[in-house]
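In response to reviewer comment 3 from the previous cycle, which asked for concrete evidence that the modeling workflow produces usable outputs, we include below a single protein chain processed end to end. The sequence was submitted unchanged, and the resulting structure tokens are shown without manual editing.
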Amino acid sequence: MDWTSDTVNLESPGRCRLFELPAELRVVIFTFALTSDKTVVTYHLDDYQRDSLEEAIQPPLTAVSRQVRCETLPIWYGCNRFVFHTQTPKVDETRQWLSANAIRLAMLKQVSFWVRRFANVPGVPPAYGALGINLDRDAEGLWKVSDAYDWVTVMRRPRDLNIEAKGIIDHAKRAIDKQCRGVIDTRSTWNDILHFMPYLYYMRQQEQNS
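The workflow returned the following structure tokens.
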């Protein structure tokens, strides 16, 4: 399955009343049309997952015409939060998505890394569930790790999850600041972050044991 669609309708539609509207109003219309009410993920889904999840494939609206594509792609990439999975095999599909969308990664404004609790790292006991570590681009264009997180499972939240999540988020903030100081617009930088995200629990455990 292709993650992008560069096939654009080049036929002239004649008069289009949509483009007679002010640009600001078109932005409102396109934002309403392109904002998903589901979680947008960068890996392929099975049928039973599609009730609440949606694959991050450019919507058909973005291929209507060159002008529509020019106006809608930045909105679609900017108004949705894209989930990057950090565990094999889904992380491999996330890397493929990053490669297919490399020239448009600068349009992203909201990303969530799904990090398995106690990922498969030597010395770390297994556990269930995953944390959604959220990154948002600020007004200056720099990425910041949010203090808010998501509990990514239908199972009951662990009793001390807030304390646990704060420690993981603090590690993520320090690691990303050291890695790129908030500048994340290239595929290679996103891939670097994908590489160390699964080790956040291991880093926290080492800190607790030191």
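The radius of gyration is 19 Å. We consider this sufficient to address the reviewer's concern, and the full set will be provided in the supplementary archive.
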